[in-house]
Amino acid sequence: ISKTPGVMITQYVMNLPEGKSTPDFISKPTPLTIDEGKLAVFKAVVKGDPKPEVSWKRAKGNILEKQKFLSKYDESTGEYILEIHNVTGAETDTYKCHAVNEYGKAVWTTTLTVNEGKIFIQHTLKHDCDHLFFIVHVRQSLLLKVERADGESDEKFWDAMLDADRKDYERICSEFGVTDLHSILKKLEEKKKERAQNNFILSVTLLCTLQDGVIPYDEDEKLKNDPRSIGRTKHFSTNGLMQNGTGLYEGDVDEINLLSNVDFVIKIQETKAKEREDALFECVLTHPLPKITWMGKGSNLEDGEKYSITVSDHKLIHRLLIRDCQQLDKGIYSAVAGITTCSAWLVVEGDTLYNLAGKKIARKTTLAGGARIDLEKVAKEQQIKYRQEMEKILASVKAKHDGGQLKEKMTLTTGGGDGKNSEITEPDKNAGDIKDKSDTAKASAQPVGRKGKTKRKNSKGDGTVSKLDNSGCVTKADVQLRVDDPKNKKHTKSGQVDFDKVTDPGVQFIWGLSDVSAIINETAELTCKLSSEHCEGVWFRDNKKVNDHFSITKDGPIHKLVITKCVDEHSGKYRFEADGRKTEAMINVKDPPRFHPEDLSDFTEPVIIKVGHNAVFKLHFVGFKPIKIKWYREGEELHDDTNTKIEKCESHSRLLLSRCQRKDTGEIKIKLKNEHGFTEAVSQLIVLDKPTSPLGPAEVTESSAAGIEFKWRPPKDDGGSPVINYIMERQQVGRNTWKKIGEIPGVPCYRDTDVDRGRKYCYRIRAVTAEGTSEVMETDEMQAGTLAFPGPPAPPKVVSAFDDCINLSWAAPSNTGGSRILGYILEKRKKGSNLWTVVNAMDELIKEKKYAVKDVVEGMEYEFRVTAINLSGPGESSNPSEFVFARDPKKPPGKVTGLKVTETSYSHFVLTWTKPEEKPEIQDEARGYFVEIRQADCLEWSRCNSTPIIMTSYSVKGLKSMDMYWVRVIATNDGGESVPEELSNYVLAMPSPVRPKFTNNKMKTFIVVRAGNSVRITVNFEASPRPDIMWLKDNIPVTKRVTISNSDGSSQLLIPSSERSDSGIYSILVKNLVGQETFSTEVRVTDDPKPPGPVQLEENVPETVTVIWEPSPDEKRDDRLHYTVSKLDSTKRTWSTVADRLFNNKFTVCNIMHGREYHFRVYAKNDMGISAPSESPTWGMEKKKSKFVINAPTRRDCDLRCAPSFIVPLKLHSAPKGYECHMSCAVKGNPTPRITWYRNHVSLNTNTNYYTSNTCGVCSMLILRVGPKDMGEYTITAENSLGRAECSTVLSVQGERKHSHTDI
């Protein structure tokens, strides 16, 4: 679960490894509302181990266009940034930030809203009186006076700074000679805020000045299209400014937003709703607006059947109601007021609620936050606040006018028709007419816009300028305009307006007219309020004076126009004029579908029927034809079928539900819709039936010798009527009869006191309502208790101790003896005494599980025990509590001293410290210690031990290897905790530095391996920190066919299937920061040698024979190969060895006797074995004793080659889990076959978990620890040049490992 609200986390694995985590958001991207053409920036900070990969996506497109979308990472801040350049309306969308690692992903959703083109401000001019008062109360802050660092006023410097990018600040300051850049940057921020406020005031002033038509547009098309007629101010421009019939304006705003001062007093909050419920979002604004923009998941929402958008009468409270919520509706919803926005989540929960009958409950509305805030109260306070400010400003203006002290000046520079600047100022007290500084110049002025030249006139042609009153309506003031001659050499600075005098504003509108949507044949009312009670006015409809068919009233300053029965002809534009001022509004008469109030009241009453009866719903309506009619039950539309009949007429509709069942209970709704609107009415159908049986199982709350008390749950469905009574029956176990107990009140519990001790009983329960009796619910067997005493409570705990009182608490016994606990007896005992004293009397049992013992002696040490008492009597006493002194609370201990680290490793370190000193009245003795750690990149401390430790040493475990940790120790006692004592340096999770050394003294320096078998060299060592390990063969790094496995204290080299080329010297180099160590082993891969070549005999010396033979073919590739010579004397029957370990190819045999025959054999030998012999010819002649002739048979060489075959096959094996398993078989073949082992047709020759060997045709495989993963079919294949053979078996694993050893 994320700590950041709104983040959705998906975990890929069930259990996370220690130290690993799924991604999460530390800082999430915020929703943006931005003007078209600007730069939008989303920023996010994520965490997770391993470090997550971050990507950005959008809902309605992709972000592949690199010139538009730029994704990057800021290493200094750890922020992932998405920049969207030159935004347009096409980028208005929902954006998602994905953070993914191998253990999960985190997703955060945000929105981008782009204000396209023109910004409408009609509601500001018409309804927000607060804004318009600022127009009258123009302050001198509009005069842009900027001071340089040396005090000199320099507008050029500040203009350059205000318009420049941040990277150019230093260059501009150097050009103007400004050295204090820090103070300039602070003042620059104030200037930017001031400019934004001034631009807002100036923009509204210009728009309101144009509203009354004092500077009307010239209808000359040539002037409209003249490019020289573009009007500008320093920082504000209005493009295409125009006036419509209702006094609403539209303009393009550059660098400012006219609604920038609108904000949210109360923002919309996250809402959780069940499916089919309604969800309501509410917000309160600081300024009244008739309409704001609601957005859902990146799209604008419109008022209709799905969404209901409403606004309060004072235009401060805005609401969005989402009807009939579904899973598709969940997401982010936003409220946009001007350039200010707020967003919140709508969470739709999928589990559907059901009532007791198993039907969905009636739909309801869910509010944000789960509770309704008094929005009306907040809105009223906001309205009163701004009304008071308006009154203060108006009073200030009037006071200055009466005293003749309003001297503020403001000059507005506009572009003249010839491209020159013209100055619009207000005349002084003596100026009353329009004066031209040019003989040819006429009394005209250029409007702010792109419509070309216009004449300076108002509707009367008197050359006066209209102004705005505090109601947002256009009024006229005697302020005249003077246009400077464009040829005049004197020019005033742009952006200034001078007010030398303000005349009496006259009658003003407190509030103007508002648009009204009226319903046909009903009353419509238009109301406005003037500042004077004595001013009369005139009403107009579509520019014609209204006739007597309307009701026009005047109540003081309030003027009303009332239409009693509206018809279509009453739709139109209405205007009210008074004393040269006017306000306008529209009346739209519609004919939506409507119900008759009396019929609607009857329809909303619930329809209550019994099961099997018919239900009828009928409702009359009126409205513009045609009207679409739909009936719904529990949100599902109804159609004609066997049990449902729907009658639809022009003026009414009727619904008939036949043979209703209990499941038909629910909400019945009718919806009507035409082109003018829609409406709906809701009723309830209640079908009555007998209740279902009570719900079990029954729960025994007390079982004692005095009785049995139990409870159960009411029926799941009461049939629409409340349970009145329960009918009880009882049966004693072992008997066949049921005893009627009678009826009890409708409370689902019963206490049976008429029981025999130790007997068992069963009960039958039926629920009774006005509609009938339910089916029976039978309980399980219940036994009346015997004398069962309660068990011992938990030992008492000392809450607090004082010199005259000790407060204790304890927990109830887990075994109550089958009956309720009546109370407790508390006992005390002094330390060193054997006598327990009762604290409370037997007739004054302690009802609660706490007690204050006041009968104590100051300074004495006590222990306490407690005994529980139930209906059977007192039970066993608890174990004694800890000893406690009767004295006032202690002082917290002091800081520990001598904190140091004595041992470290990759996963733990050991701390030791010295007990803090005890100082009376300052710090008491420490009773225990807490150890806390925090990682170097974390700010939060985590406590290693939950309970205080007594020892002054502690082993901190579970550390992350090579991480840095800060450590501190806190002493504690009954008085509290001490100030932490922290190590001055961090602790690195690694052992103390150790130079590498090998720990196994029995490592072999020479290994002989038969070709085809595996080579395995394991080396154990000690080193800290973890060393780098390198294996070499003949001083060259080993090849990829050699497998290297490294762990904390060992390294293993494995050659799965060796060859003669693998022979050589293998060396391991273990190296770390402290030093290095090396070890070498010679590995010789060989096979049985081939026999030597032909043998020849020579006699060079009498009585000697020199045996000469051709070398074995293996002699060149095996430098350890040697020869053995054997001799057979004709007088003997056994061969004798005459020479061994011969490294040459001849040998002289001595002591050769005449008259005897000799035979010689030569063998080739190496580290693996001995070859077949090479026979020599016969030497010498045996002495003839008689005429006996032996015909020796002719010797023929035999072909011993054969294809592989298994002499002894594999057997079936079944091994317990965790045991060793040894498989073996015997194979023959010449040449020697190549052996390969398989498990489930996968080769095992490269798997280090299986040890294989081949010795003289006996093939073996050893599995050290058999597990479930080793189950399957095992196959061994033998292959040579003459053929191939295979043998298979099956290994099954059973049971858990036992503490014994078996060899299969």
TrEMBL record:
Compositional bias of kind Basic and acidic residues = 420-440
All residue ranges annotated as the Fibronectin type-III domain in the record: 693-789, 792-889, 892-992, 1091-1184
Q: Domain (Ig-like): give its ranges.
A: 23-115, 505-588, 996-1086, 1204-1292
The alphabetized UniProt keywords are: Immunoglobulin domain, Repeat
Gene Ontology cellular-component terms listed: sarcomere
Q: Which InterPro entries match?
A: FN3_dom, FN3_sf, Ig-like_dom, Ig-like_dom_sf, Ig-like_fold, Ig_I-set, Ig_sub, Ig_sub2
Presence of the UniProt keyword Repeat in the record: yes
Stretch list, region Disordered: 405-469
The protein's matches in Pfam families, at most eight in alphabetical order, are given as: fn3, I-set, THB
Q: Name one GO biological process term.
A: cardiac muscle cell development
- Under what name is this protein listed? Immunoglobulin like and fibronectin type III domain containing 1, tandem duplicate 1
Q: Which organism is it from?
A: Amphiprion percula (Orange clownfish)
